[in-house]
Design brief:
This protein is mainly α. The chain has one domain. Helix content is 76%, strand content 5%. It is built from six helices and two strands. A two-stranded antiparallel ribbon has the order 1-2. The chain starts with a helix and ends with a strand.
Length: 143
Amino acid sequence: MKHHAFPIALCIAAALTGCATPVAKPAFYPNAHYQNVGPAQAQYDAQACASLAQQSEVGAVNKVDAGRAAAAGAAGVGTAGVVGSLLSGHKPDLKNIAAGAAAIGAGGAAATAAGQSVGGSSLYRQFVQQCLSERGYHVIGWH
């Protein structure tokens, strides 16, 4: 029973990392500029704006947020593992709990960083939308 914490933690970490896989992209209103340049050029410009966002202060903010998510995830899992072991009447297996907490922390950081770098952060989205607006596009949402 004491070895259940680590496999469960790995499953949760995989799920968190998997959540970050889809890439959020801006949805364009088909204004005159969009119709003139076409969807391929619009996507190219969106990528250029995304690169600018990552090179700016927005990218640094995302890295700090990812670190905070990792620490919070690891602390939460570590605490839950110890409490769960104690409530089930078993001595906490700190080695497995620590390994699970590290996996969850890493998964949470990856999910946070990836999610924000591809559109999860409102600051990132605002940056990309402003950049695209200055290029003549009208972003109506994200998908």
